[in-house]
Amino acid sequence: MGKDNKIKALLSEQVNMTPNGFVADQLNPQQFAECYELFFNKIFEISSSDIAGIEGYGEFNEDCQTEYATCRDFLIGTFAEDKEGYWYNWTDMYETTILDRAFFEEYRKEMEDRIPYCEGKRYLVYNNTFFVNMITDGKTTVGFPDWSRSGIGDFLLDFAIMDLNKPYLRIPELLYAYCQKRDIVIPDYKERYLCMAYYKGIDTLRWHASIDDTESCLSIMKSVRELKARLYAL
Fold first, then answer.
1. CA-CA distance, 25 to 35, in Å (whole number)?
2. Residue 119: strand, helix, or coil
3. Ordered DSSP codes for 10-42
4. CA nearest 173: which of 75, 40, 43, 44?
């Protein structure tokens, strides 16, 4: 059984891997405000998948197995210098790209300090909820066609990616209100959200620095710096 078929077997019938519609990136802020609950509903559907037969954390390999035993191993191991492949000796980028060592290390430490809040929080995650990777009709459906980055982690990662992509949509604020309205309790919501957001923020920052995308790097840094105040204001 191929990777996509294994993932499909985990998902409920409410999650569509072959959706009809248009790329969600085409929604303007007003349109998203009118249908954001569709996105949230589907992310919660993904997180409700039965993963009893899957161990560990991190992105799936082709056999739908994870690389890391614990959340700490996953989040810290992502930034290992000796990781084979694209990121081998990646810290050389401090000297050769826009990647700012002080900023990166500050928020890696912020992430690490919050890992205990996320340890043991194991859910299926799409891990690719940038709006260009989601399909919607803007009214009744949201679908997820590309599962190449999927894996196991805290489900708040999928919400954090949406906010990193479009912080002006105020995803954590909307999610907080959405949960209150439905009596959904997310223990340690703010700290878990920050942990996932800092993880994905500095990882995405590292990528954009590696391709000399200065504009995106500056935008990510601004978003990451402002996030704690936004969460703690809730």
1. 13
2. coil
3. HS-TTSBSS--SEEGGG--HHHHHHHHHHHHHH
4. 40
DSSP E strand stretches across the chain: 22-23, 58-59, 123-125, 135-136, 142-143, 151-153
Q: By the 8 A CB rule, do 118 and 192 touch?
A: yes
- Alpha carbons 224 and 151: distance in angstroms, whole number: 23
Q: What is the pLDDT of residues 168-177, one digit of tens each?
A: 999 999 999 9
What's residue 2's pLDDT? 79
- Within 10 angstroms of residue 9's Cβ, the number of other Cβ atoms is 11
- The pTM of this model reads 0.96
Of the ranges 39-43, 55-59, 82-86, which one carries the lowest mean pLDDT score?
82-86
Give the contacts of 2 (CB within 8 A, at least 6 positions apart).
none
151-153 vs 123-125, strand pairing mode: antiparallel
Q: How many CB atoms lie within 10 A of CB 127?
A: 20
Q: Which residues pair with 125 in a beta bridge?
A: 151
Q: What is the mean pLDDT of residues 55-60?
A: 98
What is the rounded radius of gyration, in angstroms, for the C-alpha atoms of the chain?
17
Give the pLDDT of residue 1: 61
Residue 124 CA to residue 17 CA, distance in Å, equals: 14
